[in-house]
Amino acid sequence: MFTKKRTLLFLTLAVIFSLTIVSCSPTPAQPSATEGPASPTGSEKSITIVIPEDPPSFNPMVADTGYDALVMELVLLGMADVDPNGNVFPELAADLPTVENGGVTIDDDAGTMSVTWTMRDDILWQDGNQVTADDVLFTWNAISDPVNGTWIPGIDYIDSVEQLSQNSFIVNYNSIYPGYLTQFGGEQLAIWPAHYCNLEQGFLSWDCGREPLSDGPFVLHDWVLGDHMTFHKNDNYYLAPKPELDQVLVQIVPDDVVRKTMMLNGDADIDMWINANTAKDLEGSEKAKVSLSPTDRWVMRLYFNLAQKGTVDPIAYPHPILSDVNVRRAIRSAVDVDTITSEIFHGLATPAWTEFFRAPYQCAVPRPAYDPEGAKAMLEKAGWTDSDGDGVRECHGCSTGAPEGYAMEMEFITYAEFGEPLELTQQLIAEMLGEIGIKMNITVVEGSILWDQAENGGIEQSGNFDIDIWDDGYAGVDPTDYIWELYSQEALVPGDGYNVMRYDNAEVDALIDEAYTLDEASRKKTFCAIADQINEDVPLVHLFTTPNLEAYSTRLAGVQSTVNDLVTWNIADWTLK
Amino acid sequence: MIQSTNLSSIIWKRFTRHRGAIVGMVIISIIIVLCIFAFISPFDSEKSNLPEKFLPPSSTYLLGTDALGRDLLTRILYGGRISLAVGGIAVAISLLIGVPVGALAGYYGGKIDTILMRITDAFLSLPSFLVLILLAAILREVDLPIFQRNSVFTISLVIGILSWMTFARLVRAAFLTLREMDYVSAARALGSSDGRIMLGHILPNGIGVVIVEATLQLGYAIIQEAGLSFLNFGIQQPTPSWGNLIYSAQDHFTKYPWLAIFPGIAIFLTIISVNYIGDGLRDAFDPYKVMEKVGEFT
Question: Which residues, numbered 233 to 252 in chain B, qualify as contacts with chain A under a Cβ-Cβ cut-off of 8 Å?
């Protein structure tokens, strides 16, 4: 026994000794330059961007993770892009086609339009070849390929794309398409090199999507999966001597706490899409600042499923609770948005109660009052009362077709990737609804499960939810496609759009059709009519805008967060202090 | 009957000689009692109190408050109910699967043994935590009330159906030995059915190893629940569990460390306690150790 004790004591001491030796030993040598990212020499201007995962490719149309668009901005240009204030500016285009300059011609009788684009003739690919209309036609052919192509916004409105000369082409639309300016550009679409990409491999899977030929400010130097990507200055960039930076290192750092620490220590220059908690933690830092987009885009919202859970037909299978508009209105009245924005989002979020809250389409929809007592009264009137005193209302004469005594209990889902502020918001709303007698069972899932296609078991597309909460909004300045995708009856069919509320209102459908015009006054009027109707029907509840925040190092100048693009939208203009 | 009483008292006597087991028993008893009487806390475990958020430990909030101003001690105690319940139910499910599999394999031997043990081996070869995550993800999409997303039962079931193999192997080993004993032959000669022999004669004599393993599995199940909840596949907020309390603390560990430390201590104390209790029971049920140490049978 004594021997055993002594052995144990010896082993314990040995472990402690070993740990001490290990902890006191010098840290392992850093990988050499040949193993790790290329190190800049003393005179080179290099910055580090930290992101949590590798981009799937340089083509955001493949997976749209945001990280793909982030690196796309470094190497590829589109015809036009959108600045933080929503102004469209030309990239490959010599100027923006409009009705006034003759670039856009409208056939009023046929209700169609044609857009003529003229391209700059001084933009080169990194191999010295000129970027021409051949590349645009090539990109269009790849996108519209019936087998290997993909869907892009407005594609259904294009009849044809024809080349007019080496530097010009015309797009013929079968309708009036207000979003034509960013049709071949914007946040997600770039023009791809015809002489370099292989059309047979397909737009979404071609090799050049991961090894792009650059016409942007930087060229890809190396990409070590799961570790880093290195970009060097493009000597052929058309806005030379821009960019001022010589090298951009994109480092993969999965943990957000580590990324925040790197920013605080001055080991990173950009951490995109930080949340409100991180922004709060960076306050007062000497090494890092936070850039806030001048306009908002993302609106946190409650999505109601108007069809019975697990179904997608709100007429044949109405939701036993949410198909009554009075219940939806009561829920809207019971949520204290101001408390959430101030306590959870540290005042960085702004209450929003309509889709049309920002320029150029702002509608004077009255803000719904926070009124829990009014909400209770609405529920009582709608036939939902708590007869057994358990704090949860039941159907006693409700109009939804729910059986007598049906409990007001629903599942409440959100996605995990947003992080703690959204999860706390979800808990607070569940508590607020609990106070008016609606029991909410909280679930947090991965975004990919929540938003996937119905055939892959996507929760929303297959209608397998009661109420969801997440943030969404349209990029740029044209909400038409977004409104169609979210509220039109055609978009109600799984896979055809994102009307996961299964909202079906013929009046709204007609208004959406009317919005496809270039008459701005008419569009404003139409959008506000849609806003009024949505405010009346409450297929979803707009809560507040979530801030678009990027952390950047204090040594870096020119960074401007934007909801219309990724933070690297103007990386050619960034300078080091 | 007299023999049985004597055996119980001998086992208890030997168990009480294991100081670690006694300390573990005291700690786990305190934790269980505190969890049961969590309702006497003046605070609501789920209701927010935003003006009081992120308060450090004080005389009012003994373990501080969380991001929504809820008392952390109250949440740990209610979370303990969930974590211990998951552990208990998971072990019960493991027993329900593992004991019959092991008993049938050990008693009948031959092809039945081969088939059941290969199935057991197949389950043992699975990377358990990855399969746990996969099962948790699949079951929460099953549209049945019993599998309500991330319910206590779902999580317990997921853990239970991946933890029964040890029970099966232990029970099989016990049955292989015990089925050759004279009293089993005697029972068989008297015409007892196989079921009666297995349940009435062999199982009670092999129950010791099962009890020991059950205590160890309890700790294992609590850790699995904490792991699943930490990865957001477990119990969902606002219902607290020790795992999801630590998950919620990860954003704030540097500024508000108590949010992670106290639930971590609760898990640590519980696991170490049940492990010591398991050690004590192992010693108590081990006849060779008894003979060697005390000589009760001499």
Answer: 236-238, 248, 250-252
Going by C-alpha positions, the residue among B166, B150, B179 that lies closest to residue B215 is: B166
Tally of CB atoms within 10 A around B127: 9
> Does B26 fall in a domain?
no
Rounded to a whole number of angstroms, the distance from the CA of A261 to the nearest CA of chain B is 11
Identify residue B177 by its one-letter amino acid code: T
Distance of alpha carbon A264 from its chain centroid, rounded? Answer: 26
Angle between helical axes of B72-108 and B110-124 (0-180°, round to 10): 150
Say which residues have a Cβ less than 8 Å from residue A186's Cβ, sequence separation at least 6.
Answer: A78, A80, A81, A82, A475, A476, A565
- Residue in the block written with tokens 């006694």: B22
Q: Tell me the whole-structure pTM to 2 decimals.
A: 0.80
Q: Give the nearest partner residue to B236 out of A442, A457, A464, using CB atoms.
A: A442
CB burial readout A209-244, b (16+ within 10 A) else e: beebbbbbbbbbeebeeebbbbbbbbebbbeeebbe
H helix or E strand, kind and range, residue A330: helix A325-334
Q: Is there a domain that residue B253 lies in?
A: yes
For B157, phi then psi, to 5°, come to -60, -45
B46 within some domain: no
Q: Which two tokens stand for residue A521?
A: 């006054």
Instruction: Specify the number of domains making up chain B.
Output: 1
CATH code, domain with B220 = 1.10.3720.10
In a domain, B14, yes or no: no
3-state SS track over A173-217: ECCCCCCHHHCCCCCCCCCCCCCCCCHHHCCCCCHHHCCCCCCCC
Sign of the alpha-carbon torsion through A155, A156, A157, A163: positive
Where residue A383 falls (left for φ over 0; alpha for ψ -120 to 50; beta otherwise) is left
Domains of chain A: 44-76+216-296+548-577 (3.40.190.10), 77-209 (3.90.76.10), 299-545 (3.10.105.10)
| Dist CA B161 CA B94 (whole Å) | 6
| Domain encompassing residue B126 | 74-293
Three-class secondary structure of residue B255 per DSSP: coil
- Helix ranges (H only) for A268-318 are 276-282
In B, residues 154-213, which contact A (CB 8 Å cutoff)?
none
Cβ contact A449:A417 at 8 Å: no
Q: Is the pLDDT of residue B12 over 60?
A: yes
Question: What is the sign of the dihedral through the CA atoms of A391, A392, A395 and A398?
Answer: positive
Looking at the partner chain, which of A339, A423, A426 has a beta carbon nearest the beta carbon of B50?
A339
pLDDT in tens, chain A (577 residues): 334 444 444 444 444 444 343 333 333 333 333 344 555 555 689 999 999 989 999 999 887 788 999 999 999 999 999 999 889 999 999 999 999 999 999 998 999 999 999 999 999 999 999 999 999 999 999 999 999 998 888 888 999 999 999 999 999 999 999 999 999 999 889 999 999 999 999 999 999 999 999 999 999 999 999 999 999 999 999 999 999 999 999 999 988 889 999 999 999 999 999 988 899 889 999 999 999 998 888 999 999 999 999 999 999 999 999 999 999 999 999 999 999 999 999 998 999 999 999 988 999 999 999 999 999 999 999 999 999 999 999 999 999 999 999 999 999 999 988 888 999 999 999 999 999 999 999 988 888 788 888 888 889 999 999 999 999 998 778 899 999 999 999 999 888 889 999 999 999 999 999 999 989 999 999 999 999 999 999 999 999 999 899 999 999 999 999 999 999 999 999 999 8
Chain B residues in contact with A423 by the CB 8 A cut-off are 237, 248
Q: In this structure, are residues A530 and A483 in contact, taking their beta carbons and an 8 Å threshold? A: yes
Residue A171, strand partner residues: A115, A161
